[in-house]
Structure formats: C-alpha cells, structure tokens
Specification:
single chain; Deoxyribonuclease I, Chain A; three-stranded antiparallel sheet; about 40% strand; flat; Endo/exonu/phosph_ase_sf
C-alpha cells in the first residue's frame, strides 16, 4: 500500500448503489482502507445520469465521482468541474479533485485525481 490513493468512477449514494449494493463505493473503500491506516478521505460526485436496469422498472439516477484516501491528515480539499460539451450527452461531466495533505514531516503536499472523458476530442478540451 502507498500512503495516498486516488480513485475514480466510484458510485455515490443513489437508488442504484443503496438498493443493489447496500452502500456506496466511497464508504466501501473507506471501510476497507481504514484497516490499512487510511484514516482520512475526501470525495466529490462529478457526473449524474439515468440508468435502466430492467425495462419493467423505473429509471434510476446514478452518480459517479472521485475520491482521495490518505494515511495523513487532509487539511483542505476542493474540486473543479472540467469543460463539457452539453450538445453531446455522452460526454458526461468530469471533475478534478484536490486534497492538501500534511505529511509527518509537517510539509504540505497537493494530491490530485481526475477522470477524463473517453472521447479524445473531449479530453483535449478538458486538459486546457
């Protein structure tokens, strides 16, 4: 294990995650990683979309996003929504999550995680 971990595409509280899985993935990772010394975390939902699991049931809203887990205190966190082409529904909203972490030495380090679009043209816009 490392001391810092960034994750993407994590399911957040929604009908899908609560009904089918009992808890959302950020909680799952938090619980699993705490046994390995990861006491701190920050997370942010980035995209929301409707899913259909069964043609006979109502659609449900699903949210996915980012998380950073740390063995050291996270003293500040923020996020930024990345550029998005609203004319293309397949280009879901993306974000970058930042955590300011205080190491044992007292030094501060910035940790970032993101999940760029699957489409190259969208990625080119997002990284500007």
């Amino acid at each position: 294990f490392t001391s810092l971990r960034g994750h993407r595409s994590l399911n957040y509280p929604s009908y899908r995650s609560n009904r089918l899985y009992g808890r959302h993935q950020v909680q799952h990772f938090r619980d699993a990683l705490s046994a390995h010394g990861f006491k701190y975390h920050t997370s942010q939902s980035a995209m929301s979309y409707v899913t259909h699991f069964n043609p006979t049931s109502l659609p449900s809203r699903n949210e996915e996003g980012l998380a950073i887990f740390s063995k050291f205190p996270i003293v500040d966190a923020s996020y930024k929504l990345l550029s998005r082409n609203y004319a293309r529904p397949a280009q879901h909203q993306r974000a970058v999550l930042r955590a300011q972490v205080k190491l044992e030495t007292g030094h501060m380090v910035g940790v970032y995680t993101t999940h760029l679009s699957l489409e190259e043209s969208a990625r080119n816009v997002q990284v500007r």
